[in-house]
TrEMBL record:
Keywords assigned by UniProt, alphabetized: DNA damage, SOS response
Name the record gives this protein: UvrB/UvrC domain protein
One Pfam family hit: UVR
Cellular component terms per the entry's GO annotation: excinuclease repair complex
Organism: Leptospira interrogans serovar Pyrogenes str. 200701872
PROSITE patterns: UVR
Length: 159
């Protein structure tokens, strides 16, 4: 799960930031959630029993790990891409998305090709707008990445 927080804890989670303000932090999270099909729900995984598909799953914005629709290894690849993105290693992501876009176009799957094109455009827009400064601690807006699946998280903001 990817989430926004101001509280940095030494619990194994990965944190990226700081970001200049809450708005840019939320925009970054929104971009991540539009580019990568990661879950947005806060349920602790694995669930005792599978749940009904959420709207994001129906719209193709989530792969349904809450339902067990994706193997753990495959979902980890996507999480690693999110980490790559947040670490600033976007070149390999851009290359991979270009290949996927070309392959989808060759298969005449223009809807999927357009989705990859849109992802590439969002990444480019993000690259142009985002600047990263060193993490010094204190009162900063950051995006946290929960490493453990049996953890509940919440957004916490202060002005």
């Amino acid at each position: 799960m990817v989430y926004v927080t101001r509280k940095l804890k030494d619990n194994g989670d990965r944190y990226f930031g700081p970001y200049s303000d809450v708005k840019s932090t939320r925009e970054t999270l929104d971009i991540i959630l539009r580019i990568f099909p990661v879950r947005k729900t806060r349920q602790v995984l694995p669930l005792p029993r599978p749940r009904r598909p959420c709207l994001n799953f129906d719209m193709g914005r989530c792969l349904g790990p809450c339902q067990g629709n994706i193997p753990v290894e495959d979902y980890k690849v996507i999480i690693d891409q999110v980490i790559q993105f947040l670490e600033g290693r976007k070149e390999s992501l851009v290359s991979d998305l270009n290949i996927k876009m070309s392959n989808a176009s060759e298969r005449l799957d223009f809807e999927k090709a357009a989705r990859y094109r849109d992802m590439l455009q969002r990444i480019q827009n993000f690259r142009e707008k985002q600047t990263v400064v060193s993490l010094e601690g204190g009162d900063e807006d950051v995006i946290g990445f929960a490493k453990k699946t049996r953890r509940r998280t919440s957004d916490s903001f202060r002005n």
